[in-house]
Amino acid sequence: MLQSSQRAFPVGAPILELDSISLRFGGVKALTNISFNVLEHEVRAIIGPNGAGKSSMLNVINGVYVPQEGSITLRGERLAGMKPTDAAKLGIARTFQNIALFKGMSVLDNIMAGRNLRMHASFLEVALQLPRARREEAESREAVEEIIEFLEIEHIRKTPVSRLPYGLQKRVELGRALAAEPKILLLDEPMAGMNIEEKQDMCRFILDVNDHYGTTIVLIEHDMGVVMDISDRVVVLDYGKKIGDGTPEEVRSDQNVIDAYLGVPH
Predict the structure, then answer these.
(1) End position of a domain, from candidates 161, 181, 201
(2) Per-residue pLDDT reduced to its tens digit, 23-39
(3) Of 165, 181, 197, which residue sits at a domain end?
(4) φ and ψ at 182, to 5 degrees?
(5) Pair 202, 264 in one domain
(6) Quick one: how far is CA 158 from the chain centroid?
């Protein structure tokens, strides 16, 4: 990672705080008394073995799950009963472990779909192509074309997503999330199933998103090389409990983390 003094958007104060989060499904405890924060403009990784509660934590952050205990604070404001649509309006976007794109639509149209919350014209205004609808359409197309150029996918902009290789589909999904202009971007295993070259590309784009847009990033990732290379700080979960939290170097040398997850110091 770049030193703070070298970054276009230096890491700042906490933008997101999770305090004593507990989540249960019947008698099953998915998360137990977990607390950590996310600093503005940082890359924050969540790691742990399968079943550790990582995806459950992302689902809590973007309102898919409402925890039975604990609180979530965004920019100093406590959030209660938040739904995914509320999270999106507050500037939290997400990609998923399993690609969730419109496979029959083009790359351009998929990324345009991410602009939905940025467009306020009514159905009638759109149908009649009234001035506000035309203006919003032009602004959205300009924003999407910038994202397409940024992600270096101009050559496939009109290609149906179903015809693209896996790595490019993941890049398109990243583009759709960026189209919402999020302040916080949640990435659920963005490199799962990728080959080495695709992982290198995705790492570069994640860091570029963080540096170019100043987007705060929270990611789940199993590749420890990736985590240690691109993260500012790492929180470690095991069986729904937090067992480590710190810089990559601190986490890598934490005996509790080594015993539960890493196996040996890396």
Answers:
(1) 181
(2) 999 889 999 999 999 99
(3) 181
(4) -75, 150
(5) yes
(6) 25
Q: How many CB atoms lie within 10 A of CB 143?
A: 19
How many domains, in total, are found in the chain? 2
User: How many other C-beta atoms are found inside a 10 Å radius of the C-beta of residue 175?
Assistant: 22
Q: Are 124 and 160 in contact (CB under 8 A)?
A: no
Domain limits for position 207: 1-91+183-266
| pLDDT > 60? residue 141 | yes
Q: Residue by residue, what is the 3-state secondary structure of 129-148?
A: CCHHHHHHHHHHHHHHHHHH
The residue whose two tokens read 């083009």 is 106
- Per-residue pLDDT band for 121 (boundaries 50, 70, 90) equals low
Question: Are 67 and 36 within one domain?
Answer: yes
Backbone angles phi, psi at 131, to 5 degrees: -50, -45
Residues 227 and 155 in one domain: no
Q: Which residues pair with 236 in a beta bridge?
A: 47, 244
Helix (H, G, I), strand (E, B) or coil at 174: helix
The phi and psi torsions of 73 (rounded to 5 degrees) equal -125, 125
H-helix or E-strand spanning residue 216: strand 216-220
Mean pLDDT of the region 92-121: 81
Q: Which two tokens stand for residue 176?
A: 């759709």
**Which residues partner with 237 through β-bridges?**
242
How far apart, in whole angstroms, are the C-alpha atoms of residue 199 and residue 191? 6
